[in-house]
């Protein structure tokens, strides 16, 4: 069992909120801890949204419950019409996440029997302490740059393996690769992009984050690799054209992890295309189909290189 950083923040935040509310001699002081608990989220953006949502919901709850208890009494059945009105209002105002936290304040008003100025100040104090402590503890978020860079290395390594397997098949006809790196790569890209989104929301930069765009680019390259795989698998014989493309793919795969010269690879691919143009027309249907697949593969390879 592991204790995450969010768990530690929650435990510390709840304790501080309760301690502070108790130190100020507020009634129902433990409820400040509940409000803090409900507002600690994964990212700063989510936390700020949750705090604002719960604050507004609490104000709506105080106003509505105070009025209904005043005019219709404090009978338990009053909660039926109260929530039939309160919940739709919160949903309409997009405050549905604050229904639970505001219910804590509504119960306080019900149990107190009246909503006078002193008790209103008490409840506002609980709200401000609970939400305020949540805001403070959520200011610090652990850096995830190290995890992101690790994903970048693993993704490039898997892409390199995939390209080298393509190359090996085209040059040697080796077809025993199980393709597991394709599945691993897909999962890694999804996890890495989710991590990048967390980084975006922690820094409140919307989506102009370089990590986010980097993994979006890698996802597009993964889609190209999937199309390349389909084309490579359709080539059922070793041809000189395939060997030349295979060599270029092998070189690309080896250089992928250390950085490549885009112009250099574009020139090499252009030279291969020129070689293809000088070849005589295919003499059999099988050769025609194989060369057509290689031509399409060269197009996909060009798209892959341009997206580097």
Folded structure, characterized:
This protein has 308 residues and is mostly helical. It has two domains: 5-137, no CATH class; 145-306, Putative aromatic acid exporter, C-terminal domain (Four Helix Bundle (Hemerythrin (Met), subunit A), Up-down Bundle). Helix content is 77%, strand content 0%. Helix 7 packs parallel to helix 9 (210-234) and helix 9 packs antiparallel against helix 12 (285-306). The longest helix is centred in the first third of the chain and has 29 residues, at 44-72. The radius of gyration is 31 Å and the shape is elongated. The relative contact order is 0.09. The model has no long low-confidence stretch (mean pLDDT 85).
